[in-house]
Design a protein that fits this description.
The protein is α/β, with parallel strands linked by helices and 544 residues long. The chain has 2 domains: 385 residues, no CATH class; 149 residues, no CATH class. It contains 20 helices and 5 strands. Helix 1 packs parallel to helix 16, helix 6 packs parallel to helix 16 and helix 8 packs antiparallel against helix 14. The longest helix has 37 residues.
Length: 544
Amino acid sequence: MDERTGHSAAGRRVAIATGAFLALGLLIRLTRYLVVYPIWHDEAFLAASFWDRSYVDLFRPLEYGQIAPWLFLVVERAAVGWLGYSEWTLRLFPTACSLASMVAFYDLSGQLLKGKARLFAVAVFATSIYPVRHGAEIKPYAGDLLAAILVLDLVARWLRAPGQSRWWWALAGISPVLIAVSYPVVFVMGGVALATAPRILGAPERRVRLGWITSNLVIAAAFLSVYFACTQFQADAMRDQYRTGCWAEAFPPLDRPYMIPLWLADVGSGVMMAYPAGDRHGGSAATLICFLVGAIGMWKGRDRAPLAVLLAPFGLGLAAAFLGRYPFGGAQRVMLYLAPSICLLAGLGLSRLLERIRLPRRRAAISAACALAPAALGLGLIARDVAKPYRVVEDVKTREFARWIWTGQSPRGGVACVKTDLGLSAGPDLWRVGMSAVYLFHQRMFSDRHRGRGVADLDPSHYSADRPLRLVAFGGLPEGQPGFDARLDELRRGFQVRRRSSYEVQPGKPGEEWLRDAYEVLELVPRAGGPSVAGKAADRPGRY
């Protein structure tokens, strides 16, 4: 067999496999969207801001302490207005970003890598759990990933043709949109500017320098505009919480400087490097090793500019963490802007490690296994989503109970909410965190009246023993509060309480009572002139 023919055939097989992983990555992401996972509380926290606000109101601090870029909020608000309020509509834009990211990464990998290095990079990216998961959530993380890839792709194209300036003008054109969709993309843009500065400033082509300078000026202006118009208000509302609670591990221990090296090692081998999978505290060490080998291999090459471009965003993100402005490594979802760099260098590193295997047959067998493993993971993700289309089964119970309350009970009477219809609550903290956001989301999704912002019908003449009025309170009835007691006394002039039912859909975990999903329902029937029977069925456990 001719040696060149053999190499050509092997190259075609690698190219076909790389394209197959592109298709697999798209299928995984599309499946995740189509199975319609029940919303969970973190998504609902942000979705709560898309209902009663105008587009201008989206500049104000968001409900439930959320932080998200303004243009992302605008797109989601438009989806609600045009397509309705549901998981389908609110996840449409993130999923579109996720699918576009897969295609864009495939193109980016072709600019910087070739052969098996590209195959492994695309395979890792296509089947990585976190980009798939966060690509179908009502959150801006999929936009962060797409924005980062687009920036790197433009710069990679310039690296292949450094005499051309059009890629810098293209970056100048799209950067305002990307910054308005993604906050952390500024780390990628700033890193690119720093990494390319030595080559740009020493380049003889004036048009390239002009394009580079213009793009950076546009980026700076866009960032400052978005920051002062929107970001600073959200950040001020959350800044005190950045270094506490679930974000504590995402910032360097400045009060214990001697622990910073250990913190860096823990972060570097933790979920930040979880591609295609991994865990905290060293659970992603294998990916880290491949990443470092890839970085060393690129450093030994004649052109180190691509390595600088891929690594610079890490430096700016880390600097932001030291300044207390943005978390680094604590949660994978806020680090997706680094995913392109990690997957590219990890793919390159894995191919370099395999090249060190001397026996051709053994090298071929291990290479095949390294390609089949992410393929099996990807197919497993699809099978898992189809067989169990939910994050946790409790989310399904919450959605089905809400459907029963707001849709199943409507034909058999009226349903009113203590919070949204009467303006009363057991406590303000109940509506600042926790499952109350999921409650409001499902109310608006399943209740035609609430979705149309209709007024509750509290006229006793419109109800009967067969068609009672059900008064729903999330978390519990605000008994003892003058407002609620007075309103209940007013209702009792025309109604009597026939039944009081308590429902606990999710008990919540110890120490996380805010995840408790519980309801109380008063069933009211028109008063027929006899004494009230309120309390005779008090605290009876409800069933549905």
